């Protein structure tokens, strides 16, 4: 009779700790040092989704996190596996997306000896993670995993990396024990203070031209309901960032659209002219302010509500600063309103409506345009579908023309602007929300940065519909070269593009060419009705431009409109 | 303007690089940084002297506070504090200058801690200004080597 033991292997302890955190899926790619973990996965109920590149692994986890509101988990081996995650980690960091990133590391005995497939991933990722851990003993795993999920998902969310040497994963007979967090230095802000809330209510009651400016923080805090309530009650006009799309559903009469470089004319004029700017969960990104913080909303009293104190007054001088959770604070503001008069905004609204009537977003109807394709997709799929995009012209057209109804229905790489994000993000999104329709809107440049992930879609039989706006060039770069570099086109032609329909078919995915306006509606309908994945290849002209556009160095009212 | 920040951090490997990395990344310049374990073995205290206007210092403070390994950040600049820096200075001496050098060391309340045929090593503590003045005074005799710790500071007791 052998001695009875309660001990487990390090890898099993890790998987158990993940399960404790409610993890049911990991996006990963195996390799040498994580073999003990892959061995343990065979007996684990946690689903593992095998991507085709580590970048796909981390983007899928990111897409999963954005549409589900849960923490995304990804896994890669040491060295090249870990370094291939770097762009995806930076992407999640830029957009404050909660991820727990697991990397394998060479055994502790070889650490620091430049051994095979060794990379100092903690050092490499320090500036792009919220926090990171190197695990030296498997007994620490339960605590570290617990802390990592807490850190990733609370306060301003972000990626947390756990680097685990092979011998720690293989460590035998690890006694399970209760994990207690040791995070004395970590502070999470919740409610604002009463005095500040009163100041907001007072400023609102005195304002004649207020604008509410909603960003990613509204999404993170699940504050869209209360934001809508506040806007309805006070008739507040709302502008959103790219991260804040869906904070107020498309079509809501108080929504002025996106603000900034490719924002609507009305949104930009409104922010420039307002006397009160209530900024919620935004960081005054230079794609909004044009990098001109000192000339942004200069007539306005600025209220900034953000969970991260570092963001307040970083770019634009703030008059009333409130650190805390967007939902809790907006609730408090709303509760405090009955004591104040709701502002009289009829003059302001006539001005806003006049701008809206003068500057509608428009496009040609007599040729196949990307705007038409997205508009048609919006009509057929509706705001309830999930959209992921890549980065470039198509991303902006999608933001401008797709009627997003909910904030978690739109996943795109905002802060980092990482091409190649969309396809794997669609994988993550579809796995998170099995019953929802997922559409990827992409370009031929972006798609080819992650095209191997078609294999992941095929293997997992994910019914993702790919809307490829194919113009044979790097469209946004071309547009800038046309407008700001005297049409001196440099390295934008994608000669040698494959026949994308055939590529899709090679993966067993249905492909359809669309090259005329008459086919658009029927092709999208066919794709929606098809039970499996479909790639729609729309032939569009390289001359199509994203407008309006605020040229670099201009204030946001100085736009090229057509 | 120079600001003195007292930063309590976790006493773990890798903490210093997280703090120092933050300064590099954001382009803030560290004037001096001292660090050692405190009365609590789980905590280290950093004294960081950094230049910048109010807005820069506020960003530095907030960014530091944001690090998970940082427990607290206190700006001591406007506070009443006791601050000191330690210097070790190797000075050239000859039979002609020896007594003058010793006198100078005496004036600054320095202590000779090592002596060779042609040089002496002096230990000196004091405020940054005092150390600067000593270095200035000793320069003409031949300053061979200088090492300074950077400032440490602690709040004065309330009276």
Give the gist of this structure.
The complex is a heterodimer of chains A (562) and B (159). Chain A is α/β, with parallel strands linked by helices and 562 residues long.
Order of helices and strands of chain B: EHEEHEEHEEHEE
Count of β-strands of chain A: 18
Record field, number of beta strands of chain B: 9
The global form of chain A is globular
Please give the alpha-carbon distance between the first and last residues of chain B. 28 Å
Could you name the ranges of chain A where pLDDT drops below 50 across 5 or more consecutive residues? none
List the uncertain runs of chain B.
none
Rounded average pLDDT of chain A: 95
Largest sheet of chain A: 6 strands, parallel
Please, how many helices of chain B? 4
Quaternary structure classification: heterodimer
Q: How many individual helices of chain A?
A: 23
Arrangement of strands in the largest sheet of chain A: 2-1-3-4-6-5
User: Which two chains have the most extensive interface, and how many residues on each?
Assistant: A-B, 18 and 20 residues
Termini of chain A, distance in Å? 84 Å
Helix content of chain B: 25-40%
Overall mean pLDDT score of chain B? 94
What best-fitting shape of chain B do the alpha-carbon axes yield?
elongated
Measured by DSSP, the beta-strand proportion of chain B falls in 35-45%
Any overview of this molecule?
By secondary structure, chain A is α/β, with parallel strands linked by helices. Chain A has 23 helices and 18 strands. In chain A, strands 2-1-3-4-6-5 form a six-stranded parallel sheet, sandwiched between helices. In chain A, helix 17 links the parallel strand 13 (386-389) and strand 14 (410-411). In chain B, strand 2 (30-37) and strand 3 form a beta hairpin. In chain B, the strands form two sheets. In chain B, strands 5, 6, 7, 8 and 9 form a five-stranded antiparallel sheet that branches. Chain B is of the alpha+beta class and 159 residues long. Chains A and B meet through loops of A and helix 1, helix 2 and strand 4 of B.
């Amino acid at each position: 009779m052998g001695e009875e033991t309660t001990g487990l292997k390090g890898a099993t302890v890790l998987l158990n700790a993940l399960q404790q955190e409610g993890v049911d899926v990991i996006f990963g790619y195996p390799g040498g040092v994580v073999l003990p973990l892959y061995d343990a996965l065979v007996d684990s109920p946690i689903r593992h989704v095998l991507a085709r590149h580590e970048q796909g692994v981390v983007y899928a986890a990111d897409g999963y996190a954005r549409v589900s509101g849960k923490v995304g988990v990804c896994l890669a081996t040491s060295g090249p596996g870990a370094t291939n995650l770097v762009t995806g980690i930076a992407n999640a960091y830029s957009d404050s997306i909660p991820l727990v990133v697991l990397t394998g590391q060479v055994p502790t005995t070889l650490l620091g000896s430049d051994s095979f497939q060794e990379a100092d991933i903690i050092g490499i990722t320090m500036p792009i993670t919220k926090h990171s851990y190197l695990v030296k003993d498997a007994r620490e795993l339960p605590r570290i995993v617990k802390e990592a999920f807490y850190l990733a998902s609370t306060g301003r969310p972000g990626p947390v990396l756990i680097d685990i040497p092979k011998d720690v994963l293989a460590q035998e007979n690890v006694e399970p024990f209760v994990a207690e967090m040791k995070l004395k230095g970590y502070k999470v802000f919740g409610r604002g203070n009463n005095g500040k809330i009163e100041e907001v209510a007072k400023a609102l009651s005195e304002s004649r031209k207020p604008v509410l400016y909603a960003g990613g923080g509204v999404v993170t805090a699940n504050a869209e309901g209360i934001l809508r309530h506040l806007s309805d009650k006070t008739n507040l006009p709302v502008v959103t960032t790219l991260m804040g799309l869906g904070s107020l559903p498309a079509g809501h009469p108080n929504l002025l659209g996106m603000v900034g470089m490719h924002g609507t004319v009305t949104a930009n004029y409104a922010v420039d002219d307002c006397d009160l700017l209530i900024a919620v969960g935004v960081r005054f990104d230079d794609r909004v302010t044009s990098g001109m913080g000192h000339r942004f909303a200069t007539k306005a009293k600025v209220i900034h509500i953000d969970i991260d104190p570092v963001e307040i007054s970083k770019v634009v001088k703030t008059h009333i600063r409130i650190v805390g959770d967007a939902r809790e604070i907006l609730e408090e503001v709303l509760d405090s309103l009955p004591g104040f008069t709701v502002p009289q905004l009829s003059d302001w609204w006539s001005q806003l409506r006049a701008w809206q009537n003068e500057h509608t977003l428009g496009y040609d109807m007599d040729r196949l345009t990307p705007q038409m394709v997205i508009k048609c997709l919006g009509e057929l799929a509706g705001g309830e579908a999930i959209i992921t995009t890549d980065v470039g012209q198509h991303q902006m057209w999608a933001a401008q023309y797709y009627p997003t109804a909910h904030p978690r229905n739109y996943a795109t790489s905002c802060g980092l602007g990482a091409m190649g994000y969309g396809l794997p993000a669609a994988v993550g999104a579809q796995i998170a929300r099995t019953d929802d329709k997922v559409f990827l809107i992409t370009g031929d440049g972006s798609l080819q940065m992650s095209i191997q992930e078609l294999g992941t879609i095929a293997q997992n039989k994910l019914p993702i519909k790919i809307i490829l706006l194919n113009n044979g060039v790097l469209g946004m770069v071309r547009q800038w070269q046309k407008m700001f570099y005297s049409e001196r086109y440099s390295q934008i032609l994608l000669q040698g593009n494959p026949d994308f329909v055939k590529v899709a078919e090679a993966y067993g995915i249905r492909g359809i060419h669309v090259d005329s306006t008459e086919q658009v509606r029927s092709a999208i309908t066919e794709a929606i009705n098809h039970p499996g994945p479909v790639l729609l290849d729309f032939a569009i002209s390289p001359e199509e431009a994203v407008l309006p556009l605020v040229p670099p160095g201009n204030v946001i009212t100085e736009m090229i409109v057509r | 303007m120079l600001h003195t920040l007292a930063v309590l951090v976790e006493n773990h490997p890798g903490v210093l690089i997280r703090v120092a990395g933050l300064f590099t990344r954001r382009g803030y310049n560290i004037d001096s940084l001292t660090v050692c374990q405190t009365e609590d073995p789980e905590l280290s205290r950093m004294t960081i002297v950094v230049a910048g206007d109010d807005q820069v210092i506020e960003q530095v403070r907030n960014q530091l506070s944001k690090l998970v390994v940082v427990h607290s950040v206190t700006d001591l600049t406007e506070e009443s504090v006791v601050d000191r820096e330690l210097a070790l200075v190797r000075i050239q001496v000859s039979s002609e200058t020896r007594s003058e050098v010793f006198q100078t060391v005496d004036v600054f309340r320095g202590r000779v801690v090592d002596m060779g045929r042609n040089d002496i090593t002096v230990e000196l503590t004091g405020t940054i200004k005092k150390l600067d003045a000593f270095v200035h005074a000793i320069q003409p005799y031949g300053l061979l080597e200088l090492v300074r710790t950077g400032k440490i500071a602690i709040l004065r007791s309330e009276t």
